[in-house]
Amino acid sequence: MKQLKRLTAALASVVLAGTGLALSTAPASAAQAEPAQRSSTMTLPETSAVSPGVVGGGVAYRYTNDGTPTNCAQGALCLSVWDYSRNQWKVFSFVNCRVYNIANWEGEGYWENNQTPRGPSGPKGKFYTGANGTGSYDVTNAPYSYAKYTRGWTPINSVRPC
Question: Which string of DSSP letters, residue by residue, matches the chain?
């Protein structure tokens, strides 16, 4: 029984170690000379930035120091987003006509519509606030077109290039 009490006390000490609370092993009736001091600060673990991505992958991307998605391949919708984990722009090249769910896209970015056929009847990209192509959306201009996306990627959760 003594070993169980010691093990329980040791485990409680480990659990309470980062909280600033002290564990007393004295009986409840014993008077303490000084009250336990409580820590006034809390150290949080460092968090690292998460790279923006496409759920399920399958979309080519490259890094650039300039946010403009130049050199977007013909037939693609290119979207650029700032990658805080690398301090560079991450440019995605969407070529298949389907809905893509995106994750960790924040802030402003750029889009370049280089899909075919070109002209007013050409495919336009859509940026949805909901997953799986739901919610409200913004639409790009017809190909060939390019613009800064000032609304920002933060509320966007899925994209459809066509």
Answer: -HHHHHHHHHHHHHHHTTTT-----S-TTSPPSSPPPPPS--PPPP------EETT---EEEEESSSS--SPPTTEEEEEEEETTTTEEEEEEE-SSS-EEEES--S-EEEEEE-SS-STTS---EEESSGGG-S-EEEPPSSSEEEEETT-STT--EEE--
